[in-house]
Every structure is written in C-alpha cells, then in structure tokens.
Design a protein that fits this description.
The chain has about 425 residues and is an alpha/beta fold. It contains 13 helices and 17 strands. Helix 13 links the parallel strand 15 and strand 16. The longest helix has 21 residues. The radius of gyration is 21 Å and the shape is globular. Zinc ion binds next to loops.
Length: about 425
C-alpha cells in the first residue's frame, strides 16, 4: 500500500493481529444470529517518513456509524482531564468572550462545555449522529460532519476563524491525515493555536501496548512524525506536553507556518531526542514487536484457562476498543470470560464484537461475584480498582494483561 502521508510504498510490518470486527461494532441480541464483518488488522511502518499506520482495507463509513457508542463523558478521569485542559488553555492563550474555540470530533461536548462555562464561545464538529445529539442537549452548536480541508474552507467562507482548535484524540483516527491537518491550518486565525493529543508511539512500542491498535486508529504517531506531517500541511509545532492519558500521550501545540509568531520551546527537541534514542526511525525497533505481543497473548490465554480449571469465574471490566483488540487477538470467548461490565448504558445488554461476550451493568459484579476481574482499559485501572474494591468481600482479585500479566488482590492499590 501507499503511505497515507508521503505516498511511498509501505512494506515493513510492525504487527499482524489477524482480523477483527470494527472495535465499536457492538452486537444486539438479534445480531447474534447473523454473520459479522471482520477486517484484516495489520500495522505497517513507512520507511520514508516513518508514519506507523494500519493497512488499508475499507472506508471509514464502515467504522463510524450513527450508533457509534463511545461517549467521552462516561469516564470521570476523562472529565477531569478536559476540564484541566480548558483551565490551562484559557489563560495561556488569553481566551475571552471575543474568542472562538472549535473542537474537532467534539463527541458529546464535554470539553467544549468546559470553555463555555468560562464564558468563551465554542463550536463543535462531530460526525457521529448520536454523540452530536448529546452535545446539542448541552446547548452546544455542532456541525455534524467529518472534518477536512473542504469543510474548513466552507467555515472560513462563513466567516468562522478559530483562536483555538482542539483536535484531541482525533488525529490518529483520520484516514486522510494530510487533508485533515491542512483543514486545521485553513480554519485557524493568523495567530490561532491548534492542539493535537494522541497516544505516544514511544509508549506503544516501549510498553507493548498492542491493544491500542484497532481499525479506527489509522496512525500511530511520534512527535517527529507529527511535526513532519503538520509542516507539510501548513502548521508549525511550537510546544509539546507529555500527558498520562491513554497510557502516555502527547499534546502538541501548533501554529500557522505563514503567520505564527511563537518561538519553539526547547522541550520539542527534548522529546524528539528521546524518540531518536528509542530508535523510532530504525527498522530493527519494529522487528520484535509481534513476538512481545504474542507473549502477552499467550500468558493471558494460559491464565484464563487456569482460572476455568480451578473453578474461578472471570469477568472483564470495560467494554472499550482496546479490550476488543486483546480479546479477539487472543481468541477469548464467553467460556473464558463470562461477561463484561460497563458503565455506559448504551452498551449494556449488547455483546462485544467478535468475542460476543455479554455486556452487563456494573451491579452484575455484586450479583454474580466473579473471582477475577480482568481490567481491559488499563489506562483507567486506578479508577476502576477504587470503584470496585468491594470484590474483596468474596476474595475477588484483579488482573491486568498489558504490558504483562499482573494479578493483585482487591484492596491493593499499587496501580
Ligand atoms: Zn510515508
């Protein structure tokens, strides 16, 4: 295939996860009698520009349907994260009632609401109908569309220009990364700032976070590659922050290359130096990733079989995308993980794609008293352990599979 950024032929494999249904294609009871659509899930790296990317196979319309069930506001950790973002950006950029904050992939509007309550005008762009409707219920104005250069030009023609564009946890999700980033440059006012948050490739490779790979994630970015992609599309990186979210993310600050006047912070070079030291632009770095992922998979399957043989029921916590990658790659089915609980009422009563494990409300933990809870979204493990400590009442314990299998009894809060 051709590289999504530079167009060179891409052939160096990073990992082959077999095939899987789209991570958010949850199944209703009646769907269980019908076949599911599975797509190949392979990741390659371009040796010309070093963009790590999923192999092309299908259009995004298959992945982001109107009933796409992800809602940002479900996680308390995430709510605190976006409020801190609004609290930091408002004084940093001097945002006022005369400014405009635009969020791309605004989801249910939880981030924009944090600016709105500070008196700053906001506008959201969100392609999924369900999330857009929830954002409108918060009183937010939403353009229901995918974002790219064409929409940006239309918005500019309508007199819209942004002082701040928040494109947080969306850059990795766009199939046409050049069209998306050039649209950002188009929509910014001359001295406007765009921020991009994405899971840091350095952690994906270093911590073997292969479960963060799924079809909706087209790109896996380092700072060096993000800077290269942005520069080719009219944007200059001038600062970066490292965040604990999603197992280690970057927040990259960019301005227009033609009109931006901010000086480049030293920490941009510092992060790129660490990426160079880790060999992110060297083919050998990618060659043993599959072996390490396979070891994690094998350890999990052996553990689950052992639990079943010893008569312990295993439940999972968190019907999230990264769990689906892990469960489907490991071939786990309801015989090994009886059910999964999730706080999102939209997912409850449905089944995980591929593994077809039933999704129940959290109170199923109390009624069914599983011996082990496998925490799938390890990035919010601390929050889950605090909220589920009552499994200690019946000797329950927690398990994490990534970056290595780890067991600990309820009450131990070392995560
Ligand atoms: Zn390339």
């Amino acid at each position: 295939m051709r590289c999504r950024h530079c167009g060179a032929e891409v052939s160096l494999p990073v990992i082959d996860l077999g095939s899987a249904p789209p991570s958010n294609a949850y199944l209703k009871a009646e769907d269980l009698n019908a076949p599911e659509v599975w797509f190949p899930l392979r990741v390659l790296v371009c040796e010309a520009c070093w963009l790590v990317q999923t192999e092309d196979f299908a259009g995004r319309e298959d992945l982001f349907s109107a009933d796409y069930a992800y809602l940002s506001s479900i996680s308390a950790t995430w709510r605190a994260h976006v409020d801190a973002y609004a609290g930091a950006m408002t004084p940093k950029l001097g945002l006022t009632a005369d400014s405009l904050v635009v969020e791309i992939a605004a989801n249910d509007g939880i981030l924009l609401e944090c600016f709105q309550k500070r008196g700053i005008p906001v506008l959201g762009v969100e392609p999924t109908g369900f999330a857009a409707a929830r954002a409108r219920e918060r009183g937010l104005q939403i353009i229901e569309s995918f974002f790219g250069r064409c929409l940006a030009a239309q918005m500019r023609a309508d007199g819209i220009g942004a002082d701040l564009i928040a494109a947080n946890n969306v850059l990795a999700h766009v199939p046409d990364i050049n069209d998306f980033t050039s649209g950002i440059a188009e929509l910014l006012k001359p001295d406007g700032v765009a921020t991009f948050e994405f899971p840091h490739l350095l952690n994906l490779i270093g911590e073997t976070q292969f479960d963060t790979i799924y079809h909706e994630h087209f790109s896996y970015l380092s700072l060096a590659v993000a800077e290269r992609v942005l520069a080719a599309n009219g944007l200059q990186v001038f600062d970066v922050e490292e965040l604990p979210t999603h197992g280690g993310s970057l927040r990259v600050f960019a301005q227009r290359r033609d009109t931006g006047k901010r000086t480049v912070a030293d920490r941009v070079e510092a992060v790129k130096a660490r990426e160079r030291d880790a060999g992110l632009e060297h083919p050998d770095t990618y060659r043993n990733f599959q072996v390490r992922a396979d070891r994690i998979k094998d350890d999990l399957v052996a553990f689950l079989i052992g639990e079943r043989r010893s008569g312990r029921t295993v439940a999972a916590y968190g019907a999230a995308a990264k769990g689906n990658t892990l469960l489907n790659y490991a071939g786990v089915r309801p015989d090994l993980v009886s059910f999964v609980v999730d706080r999102n009422p939209l997912k409850q009563g449905q089944f995980l794609p591929g593994s077809r494990i039933p999704i129940l409300a959290e109170d199923a933990i109390v009624t069914r008293k599983p011996g082990t809870i496998l925490i799938l979204p390890w990035n919010i493990a601390g929050e889950i352990i605090r909220n589920t400590s009552h499994i200690a009442d019946w000797g329950g314990r927690f398990a994490l599979a990534v970056p290595e299998l780890k067991l600990f009894p309820a009450g131990e809060r070392s995560v």
